[in-house]
Amino acid sequence: MNFRLMRSIYFVISSIVVLFVFFRPMNHDETYYLISAKALLFEGKMPYSDFIFHQMPLMLAVYLPVTAFGNWALILGRLLSAALLLLSFYLFVKTFRSRFSQVQLLLFTFFFWFNFFLIDWAVIVKVYSLSILLLSAGVYFYSRFLNEPMKWKYLMFASIMFSLLIFAKITFAAGFIVFVLFTIFFITKKKIKVNYFYTAFSIFVPTAFFALIFLLLTNVSLDALYFNLFGVNIIGRDMTPFSEDFPVYLSSFIIPQNFIILVFALFSLKNIEKLKLFLILMVLSFFLFHIPTRLLSEYSTTILPLLMILAVFGFSDFSDMAIRIKKKFNPQKFAVVLLIIYCLLAPFSIYHIKQYLVSSKLPLNPVELNDFTTKLDSVKGNTVVASWEGLSAFSSKETMYKENYAIPFISDSIDDLTKKKYGLILHDDYKILIEGSVPDIVIFDETNATNIYGLENEINAKYKRDFEYKYIKVFVRK
């Protein structure tokens, strides 16, 4: 393939990713995760026992170093996410290079890097890019094992990656079960003479080792762990696929680019070989696990690259079928037309495009947050309560309740005993603080007033406005 063409393509890709890193509006969870990692690094606090944490712990270890850089933590965290995504793409290409033609590799490159649903979520400081990297590494080592079943090191490396994947995102426990069952089926069907001790050791010891390290470091009870990972969401949110938000999640995932991916992935079901079957089962296990939750929301970002690989296989099967039906069908020309359509649809797959079309009020991006933080540092006072902690996370001020962000949607659902047991900070606690003029500074963001929703009258009674930044109001005590 023409070297200049590929260099131009990768230059465009790099530019797009950098734009997302710096200008993609912030997600509420990003600074929460960075604050949690910062508490672990500088204060020695442990997730689950010292503060509520809703994810598995691996992402804290990965993003922990960037929290030492103050205002730059969010940008550096996003650049780290982009680097993890780039490495995962390299591993996917390395895995399937021998199976894909040049046209198929180009197709996968476009599917991957011009899917703005994927880029929009994977470059932020959340668990998605880390999960995609571990998934790509697991698939790489497992494909080596399936081709060379007597080389047990590949099985162990795959087990390590799929085990770490659980400690990045708990929903991949279902994928680990698929990995174990598929390995047993493969060995049995191929009638491979194995040492069952080595096989069991290769599969289960890595998982047991990581679980032991996790329990020893966190020193958390199973009850508290369950509440952190599942309890809050179960109490406070309608997480079923039949919730009123489901059409929004469905449209965000399906329309428009991912619909093309799904259609061609279905064509891959025609000719199934062992690695392709494994990918299909991994995808199905992921979706089945998510039926009780937001099935087709941004959670599906992590499994999307596997669907893209299946779509590339499916494109070849579709082309073969089309050629038999119509002799003049040209797969290369069709691929070019498909990619043009795919790229034109890309902007409509950005999550915030819908919000932007309705209202220009979007959360701050990292560049704007740095500017806002500089202004905030000049305000008199030390203690801060913010409508969400991200607005003051990396300022010189002391953010009150910085780890346990408020959960107003469960305030009426949770009893005082549970609140005290897990140290939850709820909406009423913020009301008491503001009515008592406890914090020196109050920050109110109209687009994300999670913690102090509905407390505008109390704020105006006890505080005066210092400055505004876009639609964020900063108040100081009268």
What can you see in these coordinates?
By secondary structure, the protein is mostly helical. The chain has a 5-stranded mixed sheet with strand order 2-1-3-5-4. The chain contains 21 helices and 5 strands. α7 (128-147) runs antiparallel to α8 (152-168). It has 2 domains: 3-355, no CATH class; 366-477, no CATH class. The chain has helices at residues 3-23, 28-43, 58-63, 73-96, 102-113, 116-122, 128-147, 152-168, 173-190, 196-218, 222-236, 246-254, 257-267, 274-289, 304-325, 331-345, 351-358, 366-377, 416-422, 427-435, 456-462, and strands at 383-386, 398-399, 441-445, 463-469, 472-477. The longest helix has 24 residues, at 73-96. The mean pLDDT is 82.
Query: Structural class of the secondary elements?
Result: mainly alpha
Alpha-carbon distance between the termini? 68 Å
Strand content: 5-15%
Largest beta sheet: what is the strand line-up?
2-1-3-5-4
> What is the 3D shape?
globular
> What does the main sheet amount to?
5 strands, mixed
User: How many domain units?
Assistant: 2
Report the helical percentage: 55-70%
What is the count of DSSP helices, taking H or I runs of 4+ residues?
21
Whole-number radius of gyration?
24 Å
Give me the strand/helix succession. HHHHHHHHHHHHHHHHHHEEHHEHEE
